[in-house]
Design brief:
This protein is mainly α. 45% of the residues lie in helices and 3% in strands. Strands 1-2 form a two-stranded antiparallel sheet.
Amino acid sequence: MKVGKNNFRPPPKVESRVVRIELRNPPPPVNFTEWDGMIRLLFNRKNKTMRAVLMTKSTIKLLEDNYKTHLSLNSDGGSAMDTDVPKVTELIEEVLSMEEWKNKRAAKLEIDDFLSLLAEFNKRGIHFA
């Protein structure tokens, strides 16, 4: 709903609006800690491509640590550093080279896009929390 300039003292030079935000009911089936981690990373530099954001050294280090933890918790007694385990950078490239994510920016995606992106990363063992 629009709010007129005359409702403010002094009147602003821009138009104002009231926005109502509603929670999704039911909420999406997602780990909200992990969701928050991914969203914070991607929107840290929202106008950069997702590849540029996720391929920084600090982000790769974080995701490698999470990946090693995930492997050690979900392995059958094997080491998290087996030679046949793919590198995190390869896994990120695999996801981001898919047609729906190629050269995309976080600011241009919908919430359903983020949910499917998180699912793709989780399928490969990449976790953001």
